[in-house]
């Protein structure tokens, strides 16, 4: 039995977040982390939409070593440069992108897709 | 009774605890950044909101069950504690104490006996009053008593395997009906999220390429519900999805009347898997 009034839920939290001009003006700036199934139990992780200030190749070399997986940078006509990693690295990649030791990105700009 | 109060306090603060746990690491991260402080703080708020949302929606059944499980034992302990207290009083005061203890604590609130008598002048403790309030509320207005988190239940997705590489999502039609969304919209979202393709089989089943388990599809459905079904203002799932002007989709809430735009479903980059497709492209 919980008491309605004592909840600390802030009904305007979402609204305040949406009103933030910095985040809403750049709606398309999301970084998408996706997963794709290959044959068998193999998967691919793709990271799309990284800010252009980062050097993808350098990220790859770090990430490859860190996650112990191979990967490439794929240049796509629509999506630009996309990092492709072997295996399901979504969780690690998200941590890496937000981490102080990683890219220190705002977790709000990252969208993890897939199941 | 004091310790009983404590247990109750923990019970009410239970829902708050995770948010408290969430906050400190974010703060730690903020320390160095300075600039990003604002955003980060907002993010944590958002996280809370999302949690609340998940809890409020009940999503699928799971969360609800958990809640119920949490609640039941606590009430049980309270009763036990009351019983123990009564027993203690018995031991202290002997036979006579029984009546006084019973008189102080109990009394039927519906029949107006004991402490609930109309001309009773004894002070009634806050807790008893609170108990009375909630018992009356749950009797007369069960809708309000359910703490706003009305259960939103969706039948669990049924997944069958077709051959080795395809999954059949059997009850998509039923689920779409419950959510009041077109099956095309849901399938588009499923395909975009899972990064696959598929087709609709004859009897309103969805055939998805790739192996997926029920749990995985359930997760995607949960995301769909959060994004495209629940109203962000009042968290009710009773909403309609309409195409507004400018090819934008809008969600209109039927219970609070708010309207918000929704991002279109986009399939992102999909890597080429296998050599054969490369030849075509």
From TrEMBL, chain A:
<comment type="similarity">
    <text>Belongs to the SUI1 family.</text>
</comment>
<protein>
    <submittedName>
        <fullName>Uu.00g081870.m01.CDS01</fullName>
    </submittedName>
</protein>
<dbReference type="GO" id="GO:0003743">
    <property type="term" value="F:translation initiation factor activity"/>
</dbReference>
<dbReference type="InterPro" id="IPR001950">
    <property type="entry name" value="SUI1"/>
</dbReference>
<keyword id="KW-0648">Protein biosynthesis</keyword>
<dbReference type="Pfam" id="PF01253">
    <property type="entry name" value="SUI1"/>
</dbReference>
<keyword id="KW-0810">Translation regulation</keyword>
<feature type="region of interest" description="Disordered">
    <location>
        <begin position="1"/>
        <end position="28"/>
    </location>
</feature>
<feature type="domain" description="SUI1">
    <location>
        <begin position="31"/>
        <end position="101"/>
    </location>
</feature>
<dbReference type="GO" id="GO:0006417">
    <property type="term" value="P:regulation of translation"/>
</dbReference>
<dbReference type="InterPro" id="IPR036877">
    <property type="entry name" value="SUI1_dom_sf"/>
</dbReference>
<comment type="function">
    <text>Additional factor that functions in concert with eIF-2 and the initiator tRNA in directing the ribosome to the proper start site of translation.</text>
</comment>
<dbReference type="InterPro" id="IPR005874">
    <property type="entry name" value="SUI1_euk"/>
</dbReference>
From TrEMBL, chain B:
<dbReference type="Pfam" id="PF01873">
    <property type="entry name" value="eIF-5_eIF-2B"/>
</dbReference>
<keyword id="KW-0648">Protein biosynthesis</keyword>
<dbReference type="InterPro" id="IPR002735">
    <property type="entry name" value="Transl_init_fac_IF2/IF5_dom"/>
</dbReference>
<keyword id="KW-0396">Initiation factor</keyword>
<feature type="region of interest" description="Disordered">
    <location>
        <begin position="1"/>
        <end position="61"/>
    </location>
</feature>
<feature type="region of interest" description="Disordered">
    <location>
        <begin position="89"/>
        <end position="112"/>
    </location>
</feature>
<feature type="compositionally biased region" description="Basic and acidic residues">
    <location>
        <begin position="1"/>
        <end position="11"/>
    </location>
</feature>
<dbReference type="GO" id="GO:0031369">
    <property type="term" value="F:translation initiation factor binding"/>
</dbReference>
<dbReference type="GO" id="GO:0003743">
    <property type="term" value="F:translation initiation factor activity"/>
</dbReference>
<dbReference type="InterPro" id="IPR045196">
    <property type="entry name" value="IF2/IF5"/>
</dbReference>
<dbReference type="InterPro" id="IPR016189">
    <property type="entry name" value="Transl_init_fac_IF2/IF5_N"/>
</dbReference>
<dbReference type="GO" id="GO:0001731">
    <property type="term" value="P:formation of translation preinitiation complex"/>
</dbReference>
<comment type="similarity">
    <text>Belongs to the eIF-2-beta/eIF-5 family.</text>
</comment>
<feature type="domain" description="Translation initiation factor IF2/IF5">
    <location>
        <begin position="149"/>
        <end position="259"/>
    </location>
</feature>
<dbReference type="GO" id="GO:0003729">
    <property type="term" value="F:mRNA binding"/>
</dbReference>
<dbReference type="GO" id="GO:0005850">
    <property type="term" value="C:eukaryotic translation initiation factor 2 complex"/>
</dbReference>
<protein>
    <submittedName>
        <fullName>Uu.00g103060.m01.CDS01</fullName>
    </submittedName>
</protein>
<dbReference type="InterPro" id="IPR016190">
    <property type="entry name" value="Transl_init_fac_IF2/IF5_Zn-bd"/>
</dbReference>
């Amino acid at each position: 039995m919980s008491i309605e009034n004592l909840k600390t839920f802030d009904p305007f939290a979402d609204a305040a977040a949406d009103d933030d001009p910095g985040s809403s003006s750049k709606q398309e700036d999301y970084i998408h982390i996706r997963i794709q199934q290959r044959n068998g139990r193999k998967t691919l992780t793709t990271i799309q939409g990284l800010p252009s200030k980062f050097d993808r190749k350098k990220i790859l070399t770090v990430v490859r070593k860190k996650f112990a997986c191979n990967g490439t940078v794929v240049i796509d006509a629509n999506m630009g440069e996309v990092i492709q990693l072997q295996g399901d690295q979504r969780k690690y990649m998200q941590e890496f992108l937000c981490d102080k030791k990683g890219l220190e990105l705002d977790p709000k700009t990252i969208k993890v897709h897939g199941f | 009774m004091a310790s009983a109060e404590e247990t109750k306090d923990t019970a009410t603060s239970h829902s708050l605890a995770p948010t408290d746990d969430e906050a400190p690491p974010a703060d730690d991260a903020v320390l160095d950044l300075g600039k990003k402080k604002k955003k980060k703080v907002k993010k944590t708020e958002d996280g809370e909101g999302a949690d609340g949302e998940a809890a409020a929606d009940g999503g699928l059944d799971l969360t609800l069950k958990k809640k119920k499980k949490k609640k039941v034992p606590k009430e049980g302990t309270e009763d036990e504690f009351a019983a123990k207290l009564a027993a203690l009083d018995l031991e202290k005061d002997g036979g006579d104490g029984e009546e006084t203890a019973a008189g102080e604590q109990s009394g039927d609130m519906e029949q107006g006996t004991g402490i609930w008598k109309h001309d009773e002048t004894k002070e009634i403790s806050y807790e008893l009053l609170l108990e009375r309030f909630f018992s009356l509320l749950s009797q007369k207005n069960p809708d309000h008593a359910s703490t706003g988190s009305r259960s939103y239940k969706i039948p669990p997705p049924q997944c069958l395997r077709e051959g080795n590489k395809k999954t059949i999502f059997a009850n998509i039609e039923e689920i779409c009906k419950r959510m009041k969304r077109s099956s095309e919209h849901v399938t588009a979202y499923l395909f975009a999220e899972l990064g696959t393709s598929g087709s609709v089989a004859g009897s309103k089943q969805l055939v998805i390429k790739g192996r997926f388990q029920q749990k995985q599809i359930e997760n995607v459905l949960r995301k769909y519900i959060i994004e495209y079904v629940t109203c962000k203002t009042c968290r009710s799932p009773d909403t309609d999805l309409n195409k507004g002007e400018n090819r934008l989709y809008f969600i209109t809430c039927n219970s609070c009347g708010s309207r918000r735009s929704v991002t279109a479903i986009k399939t992102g980059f999909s890597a080429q898997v296998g050599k054969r497709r490369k030849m075509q492209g």
